[in-house]
Design goal:
heterodimer; A: Uridine Diphospho-n-acetylenolpyruvylglucosamine Reductase, domain 3; Alpha-Beta Plaits; 4 domains; seven-stranded antiparallel sheet; 18 strands; disordered N terminus; B: alpha/beta; Fumarate Reductase Iron-sulfur Protein, Chain B, domain 2; 3 domains; four-stranded parallel sheet; globular
């Protein structure tokens, strides 16, 4: 550990368990949860070695609780056996937040998937962590309500995982990220006790520990019940597709629309390759020859929406938009969004692997940053695709590659380093919504001073003084280098 | 070496990988980026929440075997066999991972390996079913006679029927009356077909593939399909000898060699270039895949001729004279129609004039029938069905199961749903009911490449 690293117990490492320790651990978990809900078959463990990110680790056991008490029992059992633990939802995270490091007990919440209570008048719902984001919206759709944060993986990702990563999504531009939509959470703390953070009424007295917990990436315990805010469906909703022959023009339009005083519900950008790729999958009528497209959604009262469409049309045309198309109906709109939200998953049409960054830059600097990103990728001979939440400057440069090619990972990491350096140099931040997890933690030092990190570590230690909860995540340890060798033993990228 | 050291990697090593034990293409296997967008579309993941019963998990397990040195053992076998092969994941996958090919490759490896170590009784049962009975239609019919008689004499021992399966009451009347091709009235002077088995060259406008179990257990549906097709003016032929079984169940079970032999016989049973119409979604998907299964130009040309019943009928539907029944029916798309053949619009359009179709809100999640799956994996099949039934009832506005009908174009789904008390019916039967008996059938000589509107109907 180098001298500038703050001393925090989250850095604690756990030795691999012996066979005898492992047998006793799984037996005890089986007693706590039922024998079929605690498992350690090597092949099954292999399937919980990673999430949708790149890094692989290894779990000592996986278990499937169905109640808060069972989550608490699993946490207590893990601790009693000296093992760390890790909560996992759908495993759709993109930063290795759910990658098991130091042979933890993986506590999977997929079987806790009930919507417990919906209050239509107060517009909130209590849900279990395994409820899928889109399932929640569908469950309340007949009431004219929806859950606003809509990550691109919303059909598959769980509310518990959304809370852990403070997930965003296209519509968070106007409505805010997950933290603005979580009122309260019942949490199993890292010591195995249960508490409720936050509350249903606004402006809770005292420190906002709910706000600390949301986005803590599993390092402060596991949410077992979540009170989420439900939003009324807007009376009017229109989706526009703007098509550009030049990336700079699209980027300038983004900044122009917001400078004009309009904050759309969503403002997304896709560049040429990704547009062709998703069009191949959905056939939504995305122009295959565009250099970039903007997908813009405006909602609200009908008159306001009509005015907003005019502003977007005017700004887009002034910046050189080739066409401005307004989706005619819900089918067309849904197809356009399906294309946007399938983008990451569609990557394998181009190459079998990708490494994704998540930096945020000021909107006014989008043009130069995008140019820089393409130049960096060119220099490293890595293909880069850009599909991102342009409205809040949240870049998602996808570095796509074939892992079978020798030496390619080094170039991917070099390109990633340069993109992060560029983003931070214009006043941006490291991550918009995917979290730091395992894959981005080495970059934390680029953004934060040792003092900053020390304070953050102190916050984490307040929740988890013994370092049992999702060790090695978020806060950096060891050297600055983000490559394979610096990851903890047992982790395979 | 501790137990944890035997956890295999699911990652492909850098550089050239050694050829693993599964006959699966390297490119196919690495094309999954593990994004997880398939998860909610997998019926077994939906009811278990387990990575091991998800498409992403199964692909990771295949990688562990192929690249990570994991053994092909009973654990791997269980993960593979828990898959219903509905291919809902394949339709949902933005990277278009060819999951069907992957799981079929894995099943084939399992089949070849276990011919040695599986229990003798199960091997005998599988041999009887797959190798002896299914490919011989007379045996299927004979077995059905025995079943039908046994049902009436209450002689079918419960323990012979796997849990999760409810056999339909066999119609002995139907069994006594084989299907007939359209009689040669032929105002256009076309030559006639044979007396009982078709000569499906250009004498007929379409050939109805009748299959194995469906012709024995649901022959009435075939009859409805023929009636409806004839009402559009088409002369309908039947397969010649050898068109006994499409081999879909064999492909699913990894019995690829047998499936190929059956496919060749089926192709030979329907020569000529008339369209082949299939009213079983599972068989239709299998026939459409012969081009890939056999890899020959003849097989590819054959697969081009294959149409699902609704797919064939949709462009001709205006020739049907149907009355509006005003009945609301909930559509349960068979997976092999929706996810594999990607045909969802036709069934809705052929019923548009006679019924009000309603969709479920579950993105076409599988009902758990899965060919022989409900017999082999009853727990998962029943859990998937329970979820499906809840979706059907939501679509029907919360109505009781007895108060609405469900339309599905696959015999296995129909039986699986009916066993739970769902009033499930094939679209051909619905249309046959709604045909206007007073109205003359569309004249054959009026058939043109571009279907036109029915005389008497207003544009």
């Amino acid at each position: 550990m180098d001298a500038t690293v703050p001393d925090h117990r989250a850095d604690r490492s756990f030795a691999s368990p012996s066979d005898a320790e492992l047998t006793r651990l799984v037996a005890d978990l089986g007693v706590a949860l039922g024998p079929d809900r605690a498992r350690s078959d090597p092949l099954e463990l292999a399937l919980y070695a990673r999430d949708a990110g790149v890094a692989s680790g290894r779990a000592a056991a996986v278990c499937f609780p169905r109640t808060t008490a069972e989550v608490a029992a699993a946490v207590q059992t893990a601790r009693r056996h000296g093992r760390p633990f890790l909560g996992r939802g759908s495993g759709t995270g993109l930063a290795g937040g759910a990658t098991p490091v130091d042979d933890p007990v993986v506590i999977v919440t997929t079987q806790m998937n009930r919507v417990l209570e919906v209050d239509v008048d107060e517009r909130f719902a209590w849900v279990e962590p395994g409820v899928l984001n889109l399932d929640l919206t569908r469950a309340v759709a007949h009431l004219g309500l929806h859950y606003a944060p809509d990550p691109s993986s919303q059909q598959a990702c769980s509310i518990g995982g959304n809370v852990a990563t403070n997930a965003g999504g296209p519509h968070c531009l106007l409505y805010g990220t997950t933290q603005a939509h979580v009122l309260a959470a019942e949490v199993v703390l890292p010591d195995g006790t249960v508490t409720v953070l936050g509350g249903l009424s606004p402006d809770q007295p005292g420190y906002d520990l709910r706000g600390v917990f949301v986005g803590s990436e599993g390092t402060m315990g596991i949410a077992t019940r979540i009170a989420v805010r439900l939003m009324p469906d807007p009376p009017a909703l229109r989706t526009l597709l703007l098509d550009f022959t030049d990336v700079d023009a699209a980027a300038a339009t983004v900044s122009g629309i917001i400078a004009d005083g309009l904050v759309p519900a969503a403002l997304e950008m896709m560049d040429a390759d990704i547009t062709r790729m998703v069009e191949d999958f959905v056939g939504a009528g995305y122009p295959r020859d565009a250099a970039a497209v903007l997908l813009v959604e405006v909602d609200g009262l009908t008159h306001g929406v009509d005015d907003a469409i005019e502003i977007i049309r005017r700004v887009g045309t002034a910046n050189g938009a080739r066409t401005v198309r307004v989706a005619a109906d819900a089918t067309e709109r849904n197809l356009l969004w399906k294309g946007r939200k399938s983008a990451f998953g569609a990557i394998a049409r181009i190459a079998p692997n990708y490494y994704l960054h998540d930096t945020v830059v000021p909107r006014t600097r989008l043009v130069e940053v995008l140019r820089g990103v393409y130049a960096i990728a060119d220099e490293q001979r890595i293909k880069v695709l850009n599909v991102f939440h342009a409205g809040d400057g949240n870049l998602h440069p996808l570095l796509v590659f074939d892992g079978r090619e020798p030496g390619v990972m080094e170039r991917v990491h070099a390109a990633g380093d340069a993109i992060i350096e560029l983003s931070l140099s214009v006043g941006g931040v490291l991550s918009g919504e995917h979290g730091i997890g395992l894959e981005k933690r080495a970059y934390m030092r680029s953004q934060f001073s040792p003092d900053d990190l020390h304070v953050q570590a102190g916050m984490r230690d307040a929740f988890d003084p013994d370092g049992f909860s999702n060790p090695h995540k978020v806060l950096p340890a060891g050297s600055r280098c983000g490559d394979v060798q610096s990851l903890p033993e047992g982790v395979w990228v | 070496m501790t137990a944890l050291d035997s956890v295999p990697t699911t990652q492909r090593p850098m550089g050239v990988a050694p050829q693993g034990p599964l006959d699966i293409s390297d490119d196919d296997l690495v094309s999954c980026v593990a994004c997880g967008l398939c998860l909610p579309h997998c019926p077994t993941y939906r009811v278990t929440g387990l990575e091991t019963s998800s498409p992403r998990g199964r692909i990771a397990a295949m990688r562990a075997v192929q690249f990570g040195g994991a053994p092909i053992d009973t654990v791997f076998e269980r993960y593979m066999e828990e898959c219903i092969q509905c291919r809902g994941c394949e339709a949902a996958c933005p990277s278009q991972v060819p999951y069907g090919r992957l799981i079929e490759g894995a099943r084939q490896a399992l089949h070849e390996r276990r011919s040695h170590d599986r229990r003798r009784r199960r091997r005998l049962a599988e041999w009887l079913g797959y190798t002896v009975i299914l490919p011989r239609h007379r045996l299927v019919i004979a077995a059905t006679w025995l079943l039908g008689l046994g049902q009436r004499l209450r002689l079918v021992p419960r323990r012979l029927v796997p849990r999760g399966v409810a056999l339909p009451l066999v119609s002995l009347t139907e069994l006594r009356h084989p299907l007939q091709p359209t009689a040669p009235t032929a105002p256009s002077g076309a030559s006639s077909g044979g007396p009982s088995t078709g000569n499906p060259t250009n004498a007929f406008d379409a050939v109805l593939f009748t299959g194995c179990v469906m012709d024995a257990w649901q022959r009435g549906t075939h009859r409805s399909a023929i009636t409806v097709m004839e009402s559009t003016g088409a002369m309908v032929g039947l397969p010649g000898p050898g068109g006994d079984c499409c081999g879909a169940l064999h492909v699913h079970a990894g019995r690829t060699a047998e499936a190929r032999r059956l496919a060749e016989r089926v192709i030979a049973s329907m020569p000529g270039d008339a369209p082949i119409v299939v009213d079983s979604a599972g068989c239709g998907a299998a026939l459409k895949d012969y081009g890939h299964l056999l890899g020959s130009p003849e097989a590819r040309a054959f697969s081009e001729r294959v149409h699902d019943f609704a797919e064939w009928l949709a462009p001709r539907v205006d020739r049907l004279a149907v009355r509006d029944t005003h009945e609301r029916v909930v559509v349960a798309d068979p997976c092999h129609l929706r996810h594999v053949q990607r045909q969802t619009t036709p069934v809705r359009s052929i019923l548009a004039a006679s019924h009000r179709t309603v969709d479920t809100d579950d993105d076409g999640l599988c009902c758990g029938a899965g060919g022989a799956y409900n017999a082999l994996q009853p727990d998962l099949a029943l859990a998937a069905r329970e979820r499906k039934i809840a979706a059907l009832q939501r679509a029907a506005g919360g109505a009781a199961l007895t108060d609405f009908r469900v339309v599905s174009a696959n015999p296995g789904c129909l039986m699986h749903l009916m066993a739970a008390g769902v009033r499930a019916v094939h679209p051909a039967d619905l249309l046959a009911e709604a045909l206007d008996p007073e109205h003359p059938r569309w004249p054959r000589d009026a058939i043109r490449p571009e279907p036109s509107r029915h005389p008497g109907s207003t544009p």
